[in-house]
Amino acid sequence: MKRFLLLSLLALLLLPAAAQEKIRVSCVGNSVTYGMRLPNREVECYPARLQEMLGDRYEVRNFGHSGSTLLSNGHRPYVQTPEFSQALDFKGDLVIIHLGLNDTDPRNWPLHREEFIPDYRHLIDTLRSVKPKARVWICLMTPIFHSHPRFQSGTRDWHAQIQRVIRQIAETADGVSLIDLYTPLHVHPEMFPDALHPDADGAMILAQTVYGAITGDYGGLRLPALYGDGMVLQRDEPVVLHGTANAGERVTVTLDGKKMKAVAGSDGKWSVRFPKRKAGGPYTLSFRAQSRSFEFSNVYVGEVWLCSGQSNMEFTVAQSATASEDLAAAGSQPLLHLFNMPARARTDAVEWPDSVLRANNRLEHLHYGPWQTCTPQTVGAFSSVAYHFGRVLADSLGCHVGIICNAVGGTTTEAWIDRTTVEWDYPQILYNWLDNDHTQAWARGRARLNNKQATNPLQRHPYEPCYMFEAGILPLEKYALRGVAWYQGESNADKPELHARLFRMLQRSWRGYWGKKDLPFYFVQLSSLNRPDWPAFRNSQRRIALSSHHTWMAVSSDLGDPTDVHYRMKRPVGERLAWQALHHTYKRAIVSEGPVLDAAKRVGSSVELTFKNDDGLTCTQGFEIAGADGLYHPAEIRVGDGRVVLSSKSVKVPCSVRYAWQPYTRADLRNAQGLPASTFLVPKLK
Questions:
Q1: Distances (CA, A) of 145 to 13, 159, 189, 197, 218
Q2: Domain-by-domain residue ranges, the chain?
Q3: Beta strands in 231-313 (DSSP E)
Q4: Are residues 578 and 393 in contact, defined by beta-carbon separation less than 8 angstroms?
Q5: With CB atoms 3.0 to 4.6 Å apart as the test, which of 68, 338, 356, 575 could cross-link to 345 if both were Cys?
């Protein structure tokens, strides 16, 4: 049902039936409006789909002209096309303008950018001159993806610049509204076979987006997937709740008896902001509008954390070495609440059927919740690391703790980064990702196998750059968090230097998405496994933790299995992450990690090391030293007075030292708390 029609249409609708004429909709644009490359353009282009949605009360006309520019001095000005003259003759009551894509051509924007605003204003004024009361919408352009031949030679940059100017025009021109055609399609590169023109599915999204803008019908009151019974809201910061509704619809939100009201905007979006609250609950939370109402019970205010990554974060309580003890103890955790987002199809060595492939292209790789209180019945299928992380926090903080887990086995770091960040900071990783060398060969091979039955050459996969951000982070809809616990890296361990770059991009991406430049990141260093590249990768992770803002690491190399990447002893990992968070985020006066190298110096023929967190140091093995020849030899180890002294009869003048530099290591440097030291390398001693 079409509700909340724009006020400009009401007068037309109230005319006597005999006097009513169809409401005319002019779709002005370029090849995307025209329906270029659609096999059944006449019925699949977005104006045709829009006509179906609007029904007989409307007459929609397609005035798209392929290759046309908004700029009058562009290489093919729209104002000189037959379609422009036809649009003037049609005298649309509603005018939708989608132009600018062809202005990204080097013949256009670089030469005539100063003319864009006056030319766009002139176009709007001319269309209105034949229908003064016409409503006009101008559109943010649909995406141009990385495989476009000019993407990095200017198109990417000019596209972004033109988008900003279009926003400026919509904000300053009288009676002009904005439709965002970019955001709903930017997450769907598989719908753009030539990186520029959407396929039939993309055209349908265009039509749905324009339909919502014209009618104000957004399907009534809708809420994010994380809203529900048993949800946990972040304490000590404003409680911002949001959703969508029909344009102009009034929404009343009631939390613990306190009401806030909002009105959905022309884009259907609304939000309310309650003052910050201390931990507490249970509360009742309700959302009421004319179209629909929701009421949730047992809502708490406490601490919320996101636990994410790949298979070792995904590894469940029921699979772990301490499963029987953990399941028995889960009933005594009433403060712990779990929101699980498991994969709908595992990335095992299988070919996925068409149903899974289609779901992945709809970004539906994950299930969403619901929220569950921790019990022996609910915790078995939940992440073991995430469970123990949350358990320690709940026990220590004494408040309700909500843990969201969306880990997916085998996923790459780049899969969790938003597309805009990748397009600007590292676009090379996007090109032919199944064949390039930027993504790990194993991940590419597994994706090919899973997607073997796909008919779309641009079929999506969870290991693809940006996919997990689009399928696993965007659905969270910026749900307020205290911080992130991350366990991933196995699918990037072959390239430590590249991973360091990607991990920092990931942090920027997520901190930007949540609008928190200090969002804490706690991550797990890879464990021990007989893979030769892992020592260097663990050392790279150590350096990331030391050099990155609000970033801390938990060591797990003492818990690994020499032949199984999925070692079963997960309880200590979750506990170590929690101790780090308690110390650094919650300022608890505890020793939260093992010995951390502070200084290394040569003293004669020996090496003297000092550490932070050095109370009760013990060590029997794991150190090696080398001379100028770079040949490492096992070191004799003496521990005392807070120092570790190393020597070797084979090394007269030590030049470098390393610790736990075996893929599967039995190195055992610990402190009085029993916490292990990280793999490290000092390449040059002073």
A1: 41, 11, 7, 10, 27
A2: 7-215, 340-584, 596-682
A3: 232-234, 239-244, 250-255, 258-263, 269-274, 280-288, 293-309
A4: yes
A5: 356
pLDDT of 686 reads: 85
Question: CA-to-CA distance for 61 and 74, rounded, in angstroms?
Answer: 25
Fold match, 7-215 / 596-682: no
Q: Which residues pair with 59 in a beta bridge?
A: 24
In DSSP terms, which residues pair with 273 in a beta bridge?
240
| Among candidate residues 405, 379, 518, 561, the one with its CA nearest the CA of residue 472 | 405
Cβ neighbour number for residue 564 with a 10 Å cutoff: 11
Helices (DSSP H) in 35-115: which residue ranges?
A: 41-44, 46-54, 82-90, 109-112
SS3 217: coil
Helix (H), strand (E) counts: the chain? 21, 26
CA distances from 60 to 7, 50, 54, 141, 329 (A): 19, 7, 9, 20, 63
Using an 8 Å Cβ cutoff, are 286 and 296 in contact? yes
pLDDT in tens, 359-415: 999 999 999 999 999 999 999 999 999 999 999 999 999 999 999 999 999 999 999
Of residues 18 and 665, the one with the higher pLDDT is 665
Angle, CA 116 vertex, CA 113 and CA 119 arms, to 5°? 145
One CATH from 2.40.50, 2.40.30, 1.10.10, 2.60.40 for 596-682: 2.60.40
Quote the CA–CA distance of 414 and 430 in Å, as a whole number: 9
pLDDT for 11 equals: 44
302 neighbors 336 (Cβ within 8 angstroms): no
Which tens digit of pLDDT belongs to each residue from 611-652?
A: 999 999 999 999 999 999 999 999 999 999 889 999 999 999
Q: How far apart are CA 335 and CA 301, in angstroms?
A: 11
Give residue for tokens 């352009």.
Answer: 141
Q: Which amino acid is at 568?
A: R
Using the CB atoms, write b or e for 286-311: b if 16+ within 10 Å.
Answer: ebbbebbebebebbbbbbbbbbbbbb
Judged by DSSP in three states, 525 sits in: coil
pLDDT in tens, 584-618: 999 999 999 999 999 999 999 999 999 999 999 99
Assess contact for 580 and 522: CB atoms under 8 A. yes
Q: Under 8 Å CB-to-CB from 9, ≥6 apart: which residues?
A: 23, 93
Q: Which fold has domain 340-584?
A: Rossmann fold (3.40.50)
Q: What is the CATH number of domain 7-215?
A: 3.40.50.1110
For tokens 């001095």, the residue is 73
Helix (H, G, I), strand (E, B) or coil at 270: strand
pLDDT of residue 203: 98
